[in-house]
Fold Phosphoenolpyruvate carboxykinase [GTP].
Amino acid sequence: MTALTIPGLDHAPTTHERLLAWVREVAELTTPEQVVWCDGSDSEWERLTQQLVEAGTFTRLSGKPNSFWCASDPSDVARVEERTFICSADPSGAGPTNNWMDPDEMKAVMTELYRGSMRGRTMYVIPFCMGPLDAEKPMLGVEITDSEYVVVSMRVMTRMGSKALARFGEDADFVPCLHSLGAPLEPGQEDVPWPCNQTKYITHFPEERMIWSFGSGYGGNALLGKKCYSLRIASVIARDEGWLAEHMLILKLTSPANKVYYVAAAFPSACGKTNLAMLEPTIPGWKVETLGDDIAWMRFGEDGRLYAVNPEAGFFGVAPGTGWKTNPNAMRTIEKGNSVFTNVALTDDGDVWWEGYSEAPPAHLTSWKKQDWTPGSEELSSHPNSRFCTPIAQCPIVAPEWEDPEGVPISAILFGGRRATTIPLVTESRDWQHGVFMGATLSSETTAAAAGRVGVVRRDPMAMLPFIGYHAGDYFQHWIDTGKSADATKLPRIYYVNWFRRGDDRRFLWPGFGENSRVLKWIVERIEGTAPAVETAIGHVPTAEALDLSGLDAPGADVEAALRVDVEEWKAEVPMIEEWFAKIGDKLPTSLRDELEALKQRLG
Ligand code: GTP
Ligand code: SPV
Ligand code: MN
């Protein structure tokens, strides 16, 4: 074959042979107009954002420094779980919760999609690192993409460019991440503001530790360091190496006695991680600082405790509902600028707005669909899954140790979901195995973060249903084994929370947001052995008296109802858990089956 000459291809700032060979192979397949190796510099960022403004993808904001408004194609607004595949060598490697296709078959299909798919566009090579750059063994990746939006977003969400490439040396291992919008440009053809393809594939090759994505520009489908690498591929690496890659926030809690506790919490997409991570406590003397809002990698330290690291460098947070009353620290973070806002509304004076941004909406907006919007409009101004993309370092309450490669020792793990009924405000597990049962049976109403129906209750184990890179039964066993391998006295305690229980008129029974600090306080007091709890069929639950409710502006009856363990509701839950466990099949750990039997016994 004759080697193609593609401008930029040979201007590689590395001698890493495997990387050079892969970049050449992809360039020859996708035939871009030129190849650009990203260095992550300010001048590169200025060039790319200006290009995005000229293309009509970005609108420069005057209301926030170095920030942009962006509206996607209305069909490309969320993760596409139906189009997400785990291409393990054997179907049992993917299990019943993932889509599977034979790796060779998938490669054949996608190779044809990629053939010429970057024609008329620039192919960017983005070396990146998930987690701190000074880690003993940095977790490296390279994303190849034909999207400027992806490059600009990856600069916020990861450590990328020259500083990452410096850690590659001659032969460091890395995860190849290939992304194409699937929208080649013919000579003279005018581009659209948000190129994408109706055919979409988000695919993972767990044995090869490789990611191929096609057709979408949306965050979770296109920023491949995030869910694809740090959860789906990392969960496989973690299984093999004895650690955990989880869909969890990490926060630091300091008590009035100045004692520090680190908490990790797994809630499904759009169920409150960003908000809890940046919480402003309503109870005096307590302080929360943020380490991460979406992903935690947890390994045992030499002292036998479980340490968590956030692999990301940015927040890709849900915009609607984020306001000065609900999440002032997110507002302070984005006010500092350097942010991209996708699928929110644009104000007439060049700022952003979304439902919940402020109490009263402006008199006129440009909606995410680029249409005139007034407070009388029938449609929402912003897509429910619209997002802000902003650097963690700008968060006013970022914990100083957020980039420590050793991580922080976790005292408590919270599982939670969005359930209108049944699940109490907080329940403490009896032990690790019972906590794993809580996680494995976690359920939540679906949200707009994934394409499909919203508000349907589904099992979302450990909030990882769309992100487990292998068989869910093996994943549960890995969680059980993680507990068995550890000193039980040093393991984090496990809790199940629900901020979303509703009364008869559909109002939330618990005010949530900053008031969730009252639940965190009870958890700390349980760890210290000072707070009472009632032993129920489902675990240890506080009475209203056991919670610090001083100054809480909520009806006492609502709090009681939020805490209630209703045996009849739980009896109705059991068949749903049985159905779920049946779906997992033979690989369901016996210990979880035992936990279900014990629960049934206790419910009577
Ligand atoms: P992903 O980024 O999709 O993984 O989501 P997340 O878990 O970080 O969710 P986020 O914190 O962004 O919250 C999603 C939505 O839930 C927002 O609209 C919030 O306003 C709302 N929310 C968060 N916490 C609470 C709470 O305590 N109570 C109530 N009622 N709503 C909440
Ligand atoms: C989620 O859906 O859980 C997110 C957003 O955090 S995305 O990165 O798009 O997956
Ligand atoms: Mn998430």
